[in-house]
Amino acid sequence: MAKKSLKILVDEMDDGWDEKLQKEGFEAYSVKKLRADGKKLHGDRSVINYAEDNNMILVTRDKEYRISCEEGGIPCILIDNEEIFKIVLEKLKHQDY
Q1: Which residues lie closer than 8 Å to 64 by C-beta, 6 or more apart?
Q2: Is residue 82 assigned to a domain?
Q3: Where is each DUF5615 domain found (predicted)?
């Protein structure tokens, strides 16, 4: 089970991952759903500030977010083609085709 203090903010491109993470025991939120609830999360800076103010890890595909998070010391998980390629390669190495 996940640590209760670990909070995750899922960028809008992966809306729905918040629900999957919640099923795994994480406290996860979606930028898209937070916007629908009235949070002003329309610009990059506001999303990053929200993650920082709420002690969250930002999960995103946006490389600009990663750069801003690194500069600000905010935890971020970048899902990009390199990460996806690593997963595919690892699966291919461990399958008998």
Answers
A1: 44
A2: yes
A3: 7-65
